[in-house]
Design a protein that fits this description.
Blueprint: E1 2-7, H1 15-29, E2 33-38, H2 65-76, E3 79-85, H3 93-102, H4 105-108, E4 115-121, H5 126-131, H6 134-148, E5 154-160, H7 168-184
Parallel strand pairs: 1-2, 1-3, 3-4, 4-5
Helix pairs in contact: 1-7
Amino acid sequence: MRIKLVVAHPRKNSLTFAVMNRFIDGLKENGHQIDVLDLYNDGFDALYSAEDEYEWKNPEKVFAPLVQKEMDRVIAADAFVFVFPIWWYNMPSIMKTYLDRVWNIGVFDTLAGKKVFWLALAGGTEAVFHKYDYTNMISHYLNNGIGKYARMEESKVEFLYDTLNESQEHINSLLEQAYLAGKVYA
């Protein structure tokens, strides 16, 4: 399977990148092809402009070269994975802009029937996320607001909780969780 993986974190030495790498290790065991976009380090422009907007009266619109390149990568993918920290109970703004710019009407029809997996790193504990219903709120937004709206065959969120915990044992368990999620993703 051809998987488009999008990661959002400004530091390559972050837990987000370590999680992404372990997830990819799991994917590779099943022979998947992975196309990685590092939003912060691969030159993705986070500014949404009029050039990015679909024009209803001009269905043949030509998008900015960066956006068209990413649209082509999306069209070529069978499935999508997003790896990101939860900031203010949402994805980082650069990831939201990626979706706004690239999952545009120009590729929207090509998303139907594909799969998306959201691997979200939460600084809070699982108990806190459940107490305030953050897990359901975020899952509903990602699965229904984005996944179902885009007519994805499957949209699933997996949370890695308590990512600010400095216990090496806990960090190792998060990395193992990411690896296992990649290993069973198909």
